[in-house]
Amino acid sequence: MILKGKAWKFGDSISTDLICPGRYFHLRSNLPELAKHVLEDADQEFALKMTRGDFVVAGNNFGLGSSREHAPTIIKLAGVSAVLAKSFARIFYRNAINVGLPLLECDTDNIEQGDEIWVDLGTGIIENKTKNFKLSAHPLPRAMLNILNDGGLLSHIKKHGDFKLD
Amino acid sequence: MGKTLAEKILSEKSGQDAHSGDIVIASVDVAAFQDGTGPLGVRQLQKMGLDKVRAPKSIFFLDHAAPSPRKELSNDHMLLREFSRKSGAILSEVGDGVIHQRLVESYAKPGDVVIGGDSHTCTSGALGAFATGMGSTDVAIGMAMGKTWFKVPETYRVEVEGEFQPGVYSKDLILYLIGMLGADGATYKALEFGGAAIRKMSMEARFVLSNMAVEAGAKVGLIVSDEKTKQYLRSRGRVKDWRPLMPDKDAIYERMIKVDARKLSPQVAFPHTVDNTRGIREARGVKVDQVFLGTCTNGRIEDLKIAAKILKGKKRAVHTRLVVVPASRDVYLAAMKAGLLDVFVRAGGIIMGPGCGPCVGVHQGVLGDGEVCLSTANRNFKGRMGNPEGMVYLASPATAAYSAIKGQISDPRELFEKSRRKKTKKSSKRRKNR
Ligand code: SF4
To answer: Does any domain span residue B427?
Structure first.
């Protein structure tokens, strides 16, 4: 499947506090409302102006900080098709796969705000249509690929009745 | 091949000869949620029709919004209470304390696998438990099935030798390490702390190191289970939970980091990242609007004692608010008994009920635009204390207490210099009199 959308560019160290601010703690049981504030403290325009299918593109250590699964969940709910970053924080990475938000680890330096991006999740090939170049993402570890392909951890367990990672 | 602490525990718990890089399925001894991550976890379980818990200790902690400041959170608390009752999980009520403090006090033990829907679950690593934070779905599944999967991490060994100068504490050591490693310097790795300085350290001081392992990206922050661990568990009436645990002598480490404790000065993490740490000299003079003493990092009795000793008979600066939050009910009681609460209140402080307090910006001490808070917590991300225009600096309880008096970030070593000077004066006087 090819995902197509515009790039929204963010910097390094985008914490879960920036993605899902603590002051909206009371909205955690109201995910559609919470999703309206996604990434608000990193870029106030993002939630208002992004369109479904767009990509979040960032630098190093995306998603550092708390274990709140609400962070990848509201990125997905807002309609972001995938997050591209140079690296991801550990808990965020696992959470994103569990909730079925695709992550692509790649060199994002040459992607700019507004670039038209195509991503082939099957091959991990990323195409920057605006600047006309291709990148390939580091493949997911097999255990994670199995979970993602099953549609997240819940569906994985439902399907196999247990962990089935290799 | 010798094993690290992480490899040893995961081998035991998975029943296979586990080495770094392996994927294992390990049994879970403790699965925990707090009130911010629990509701999503419960809903995931309900979606699967799982209404019983299988992890031997499954616990829900009401601590982040305790007591609840608004109806949405009160309703979340109701959901967790009801699920605990039906599922057989343990409920830790409002006022019992912060998840990680309660886990080390009463639940986690050496050799355990502990998973928690909170990133600082790594705190229990100081007891020799493989303790790590995960998201709601992972913890929910671990709670319901009594097992979870891990990639066995490679280990960075941190060897700390020498003695700390007076006024320098384990908080300064871990801030220094995070500054050195960077916020992603140990991503996916296990940190294992050892060396003479760690052997000497109290459990309370060790918890600070393990608590903040995640701030360097680490999965766990492990420390051996030794006599100090045994003493601690005995003091909690849990000596039966103790067992010795250490890495093999020929364990293989990916990296060795050596630190000389004598050379450390008090450290301060500047806004807005934890790895933005500098020696206190560079922070000196920053005006402080609020000092926050508490959290799962530094809200323990030893921390409150250190702060109270500095604040005794003194007053906070007129423009500096002082917020004190004991990490648990037992810490609160011990502080009361030792007369510490009296010291804080007389110094112009305000004491709040056990829990997370203002740490995560839900309530109780949210910062105004441009205000500076000097906090003993573990995180200072933008927006952390409820306002992206607030500035959070992190430091030890001693630095926090002394800065509250001065109204600006100040070096607690001055106190020891002063008392040393006084002592030498006295003794030289005595010499003269003789
Ligand atoms: S005290 Fe702060 S860091 Fe610790 S669990 Fe509570 S919110 Fe998290």
So the answer is: no
Burial class (CB in 10 A: 0-12, 13-18, 19+), A110: exposed
Nearest to B113 by CA among B15, B209, B27: B27
In angstroms, the CA B116 to CA A144 distance is 20
Half-sphere exposure of B340 (CA within 13 A, CB side): 26
Residue A4: helix, strand or coil by DSSP? strand
B221 alpha carbon, distance to own chain's centre: 11
Interface contact A18-B147, CB threshold 8 A: no
* Residue A166 Cα to chain centre, angstroms: 24
What distance in Å separates residue A46's CA from the closest CA in chain B? 16
Query: What's the rounded Cα separation, in Å, for the pair B8 and B4?
Result: 6
| B226: its two tokens | 């030794």
B178 lies in a domain?
yes
What residue ranges line ligand 1, CB within 6 angstroms?
A: B 64, 98-100, 118, 120, 295-296, 356, 359-360, 377-378
Tens digit of pLDDT for each residue in B22-53?
A: 999 999 999 999 999 999 999 999 998 988 99
B224 and B273 fall within a common domain: no
Residue B307 is part of which domain span? 266-417
How many domains does chain A fold into? 1
On whether residue A112 sits in a domain, the answer given is yes
Q: Residue B160 pairs with which residues in a beta bridge?
A: B259
CA A61 and chain centroid, separation? 12
CB A61 within 8 A of CB B108: no
Q: What mean pLDDT value characterizes chain B?
A: 96
B76 touches chain A (CB under 8 A): yes
d(CA B71, CA A26): 8
Q: Looking at residue B370, what DSSP letter applies?
A: T
Reduced DSSP (H G I as helix, E B as strand, rest coil) percent helix, strand, coil of chain B, to 5: 40, 20, 40
A21: closest chain B residue by CA: B383
DSSP class of residue A109 equals T
B276 close to A (CB below 8 A): no
Strand partners of residue A128: A117, A133
User: Where residue B233 sits, what CATH number does that domain have?
Assistant: 3.30.499.10
Q: What is the pTM of this model?
A: 0.95
Looking at residue B374, the DSSP 8-state letter turns out to be: E
B236 plus B293 within the same structural domain: no
Global ipTM: 0.94
| Domain co-membership, B185 together with B56 | yes
pLDDT in tens, chain A (166 residues): 799 999 999 999 999 999 999 899 999 999 999 999 999 999 999 999 999 999 999 999 999 999 999 999 999 999 999 999 999 999 999 999 999 999 999 999 999 999 999 999 888 999 999 999 999 999 888 899 899 889 999 999 999 999 998 8
